[in-house]
Q: What sequence folds into this?
């Protein structure tokens, strides 16, 4: 399973739901602007509850996109030591789009969402119907870019990992069959090719 990193653009988004990350294996980096002098108690308490899995990064200097460049730098550092990283950028700034596209093209998983509640792994636990599970699978595969599974067995393992290995094999194969029926994938001699929606970054 990929290691998940949450990078929060605190100048752009001030999350009030950080506690929802408790119990999940996320590494959290909160990037604070040079002129942001105060952190609300609720956020500080939520960060403290995450222990060593969370830290603040106070950026140096200010100016247009200064914080964004810091996030990009840290992502590069993490990717170098952890090629299996999955980056979740929390920001309303659509300027991250080209960076995410570039990373996906280099088989690095990354996406941007506006709120922590939009992170797929956090939404998975609420997915009960086949449609909800399909939506979660498709969004996860879109975010992977070129790093998508190329064999049926690998796809099955990826889907089950997405649901924290709680699915029976029959349900996983049923979801794969549903993807085939919806023409999201084609399988030829165990090789998988994709016709997924355009990535939303």
A:
């Amino acid at each position: 399973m990929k290691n998940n990193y949450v990078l929060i653009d605190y100048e752009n988004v001030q999350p009030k739901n950080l506690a929802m990350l408790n119990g999940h294996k996320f590494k959290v980096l909160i990037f604070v602007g040079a002129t942001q002098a105060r952190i609300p108690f609720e956020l500080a308490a939520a960060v403290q509850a995450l222990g060593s899995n969370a830290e603040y990064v106070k950026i140096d200097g200010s100016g247009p996109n200064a914080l964004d460049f810091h996030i990009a730098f840290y992502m590069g550092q993490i990717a170098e030591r952890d090629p299996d990283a999955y980056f979740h950028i929390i920001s309303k700034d659509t300027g991250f789009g080209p960076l995410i596209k570039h990373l996906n093209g280099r088989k690095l998983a990354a996406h941007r969402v506006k709120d922590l509640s939009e992170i797929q792994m956090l939404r998975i636990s609420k997915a009960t119907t086949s449609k909800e599970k399909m939506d979660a699978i498709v969004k996860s595969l879109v975010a992977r870019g070129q790093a998508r599974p190329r064999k049926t067995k690998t796809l099955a393992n990826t889907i089950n990992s997405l649901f924290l290995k709680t699915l029976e094999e029959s349900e996983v194969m049923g979801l794969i069959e549903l993807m085939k029926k919806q023409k999201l994938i084609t399988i030829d001699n165990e090789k998988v090719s994709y016709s997924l929606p355009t990535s939303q970054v």
